[in-house]
């Protein structure tokens, strides 16, 4: 949906530019020039479209260009025009924001998933070691502050932020895994600070709540009280300033590698079928 602002911006441009902007692969630059303030008490998705950001879009377009079959190619190009959140998990990822803001029109919102908090000390405890350990000591300083600075600076861009420290399950079941004390303390110190630092007028924030299994929609899956997750999230929100936060919108679930809400049949991922069936 177009906001009034972008509608007039489009009207002011020559017709061919507007026509081009709706064509895949030929996106016209129609960057928003007005300062944005988002009202987190409302459902901003009614007025904003998730931006098909250029960082991933470039890859989709390159891949689509390798397809010879016209119908398949068109489908691939449609993916390039679908909105996606940009995943940020290291200091090196942060400059991607500079690329992604370059072509966001007033009616679009740029989505960022902010990962990057350490799981140090927990990987071994669960017998799963594919995740990279990170030093969480400087998470706020090295990850959150440079992102917050950019969001403030890019005040003509609307942002939707998912704060996804990625260690919530370990934090919550810490009584079962004493090795996770370090992760628990990193989460409880850093996450509220991150929510507070990202409480910026042109952004709305969501705190990640992992997936339906952890959130208690599949009680047979876990051996802890699912209410603990809700309690942990509430405590995080309170430590961040609770009602003094103006841009906090709520929680997010199923951010990566989990089922889509509305696909029939649903997607299946290793070990996650139960999650799909629960939410179906
Ligand atoms: C969406 O925009 C319309 C028109 O600008 C406005 O009246 C309405 O309140 C907005 N809705 C939300 C949820 O922000
Ligand atoms: C927006 O940010 C610019 C710097 O990028 C600053 O000069 C300007 O005052 C800001 N405007 C508002 C309304 O905050």
From TrEMBL:
One of its GO terms (molecular function) is hydrolase activity, hydrolyzing O-glycosyl compounds. The keyword Signal applies. One of its GO terms (biological process) is cellulose catabolic process. InterPro entries: Beta_cellobiohydrolase (IPR016288), Beta_cellobiohydrolase_sf (IPR036434). Residues 1-19 form the signal peptide. Keywords: Signal. Substrate binds at residues 87, 211, 214. This is Glucanase. It comes from Pseudopithomyces chartarum. The lineage of its organism: Eukaryota, Fungi, Dikarya, Ascomycota, Pezizomycotina.
């Amino acid at each position: 949906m177009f906001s009034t602002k972008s509608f007039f911006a489009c009207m002011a441009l020559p017709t061919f530019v507007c026509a081009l902007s709706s064509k895949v692969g030929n996106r016209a630059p129609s960057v928003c020039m007005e300062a944005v303030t988002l009202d987190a008490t409302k459902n901003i998705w009614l007025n904003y479209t998730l931006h098909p950001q250029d960082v991933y879009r470039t890859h989709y377009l390159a891949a689509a260009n390798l397809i010879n079959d016209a119908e398949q190619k068109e489908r691939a190009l449609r993916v390039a025009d679908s909105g996606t959140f940009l995943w940020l998990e290291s200091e090196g990822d942060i400059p991607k924001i500079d690329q992604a803001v370059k072509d966001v029109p007033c009616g679009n919102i740029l989505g960022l998933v902010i990962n990057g908090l350490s799981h140090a000390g927990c990987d071994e405890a669960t017998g799963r070691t594919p995740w990279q350990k990170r030093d969480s000591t400087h998470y706020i300083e090295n990850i959150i502050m440079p992102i917050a600075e950019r969001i403030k600076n890019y005040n003509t861009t609307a942002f939707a932020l998912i704060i996804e420290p990625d260690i919530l399950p370990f934090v919550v079941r810490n009584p079962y895994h004493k090795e996770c004390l370090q992760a628990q303390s990193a989460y409880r110190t850093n996450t509220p600070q991150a929510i507070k630092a990202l409480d910026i007028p042109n952004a709305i924030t969501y705190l990640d709540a992992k997936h339906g299994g952890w959130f208690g929609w599949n009680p047979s899956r876990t051996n802890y009280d699912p209410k603990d997750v809700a309690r942990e999230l509430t405590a995080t929100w309170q430590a961040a300033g609770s009602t003094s936060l103006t841009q906090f919108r709520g929680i997010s679930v199923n951010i990566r590698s989990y089922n889509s809400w509305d696909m029939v049949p649903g997607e299946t991922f290793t070990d996650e079928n139960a999650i799909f069936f629960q939410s179906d």
